[in-house]
Amino acid sequence: MADFPPLASNFQRLTASLSPMPQIRRLPESLINRIAAGEVVERPAAALKELVENAIDSGASRIDVKLVEGGLGLIEVTDDGCGMSAEEMAIALERHATSKLPDEAIEQVTTLGFRGEALPSIASVALLTLESRVRGADSGWRKVVDHGQLVEEGPAALPPGTRVKVEQLFAKVPARRKFLRTPRSEYAACLDVVRRLAMARPDVAISLTHGERRILGLQAGEALADRVSGIIARELKDNSVAIDAVRESPSGVMRLSGIAGLPTYNRGIADHQYLFVNGRPVKDRLLVGAVRGAYADMLARDRHAVLALFLELPPEDVDVNVHPAKTEVRFRDANGVRGFIVSGLRQALATGDRRSAQGPDRGAMERWQQEPVRKEVAPALRSIFEGRDWSAQQPRVSEAGQAWRAYETDVMARDDYAPQGRASEQDEQVTPEDFPLGIARGQVANTYIVAEAADGLVLVDQHAAHERLVLERLRAAGAGDAVARSQALLVPDVVEMDEVDCDRLEEATEGFAKFGLVIERFGPSAMLVRAMPHALRKGDPQALLTDLADDIAKHGQALLLEEKLEHVLATMACHGSVRAGRVLRVEEMNALLREMERTPRSGQCNHGRPTWVKLSMEDVEKLFGRH
Known about the structure:
Ribosomal Protein S5, domain 2; five-stranded mixed β-sheet
């Protein structure tokens, strides 16, 4: 067996070979600028973001952006803003200089950034040419800085405003240059930056040229919906709803505006969600979670909403300085902000809830939405929806699975009726012009209802449609009250958990109590469950509290208790809805169509799938060569 040297002797040799600790010294200015640049300018898109934000903050009404090789070859930003004098340009190229803070109250900043913060950082890692002319001056001034060294300055001829050129980015920092991606990838990141800033300011004309190609040419003064849909997708304007919600906060007023795509107009990735706080584009987990919560029962888990949200709130209620690039924010009242966004989004989506993103006729749709919504149930629906006393059987309604299946025949007509037959005399007297979804004419594959509308054919997925109707019926019939009630446990459950998780849950006990979950601290590492929400009274307290603690750890607040209850209702609705493959009578089909016209969010099922599509008569005529 080989002899190994003692551990102590190895450590002594290692320490002896090391040089003595050097004395603490100040870093040179050039290295300080490079370190600062590493925090702000990690790629061309980051430099472009800073320059365009500076142009917006200067009061520009027009901004022109030119790129070469995705910004690796050239970034040029020209604006017609207030401009800078030669003296101001010299100060702007120094670190920690700005014109955007009138005093030392950094939390009161209302601009997108600090002009002097970005320019010296960019100039330290690139060849920067800065030209500017103050409005009313005879000429402008020009400064050229090559990787931190001033190499040229003098008069310049240009219109009032500022022009910034960035070339040779990271040319003298090869360690950073080799980590940049391909020109195509860098161009995609630059395009995303310009799009987001252009959405935030529809009052500013913005153009983008890449090489010899003109990519964007946005005019000033566009309506917000036109600007957003023009940037994201033209069809978004016809498949979205406007948002305008206001709520009082302790420090002032919060306002949420923008446009949100219908649940049936969705994407497989979340890169079409544009979020803004006080005009600043951000990527914030709390806001993303609020969007997901608002669409919780209207989108499949692997689908994502398309929207642009603009949140405005007092500056003292949000901290924009938690990230060097200011892409993340922190809210003083995170719970209040999330609740405001969820409620505002849901209210807005309710205004377009009967629409599907399949392109229905706009005229019929407008007439439909202008008609008053009847709160009472249509007489024809009593055989379908009012077959039982909802109030008397509420405790059983909250149960999912087999318990809910027992009431399927109470919600829908029984299976033991004759297959679809002729419409009744009353149905024959009704014309398709009377209803947006038309009159039922038959059933295909015992799954899809075929209806004749005034301007085309409507196909309805009977299971998906009725699933939504039952869910909304549960909410409207008092299921929401049943959910909010507590079901006291005969013997309180003791749930042992990590002490940190118990601390998180203890802080949220008051919020949980509003939904019927009554818990209290039971020692350092346990929680006592005294009551469960009515709809979850048969649930597992251990699993529920574990999920809630995980939610708080992930998002900083309890996000999903209400959403869990909504999921229970959605599961009940799925089990209680008419199945695909079931034969329906004509009067039942028509009753289903009429209830869809009166039910919120009937354009999509609980999983985000469309419940109906329309084939226009023009399309039908084309199929037969008549058009």
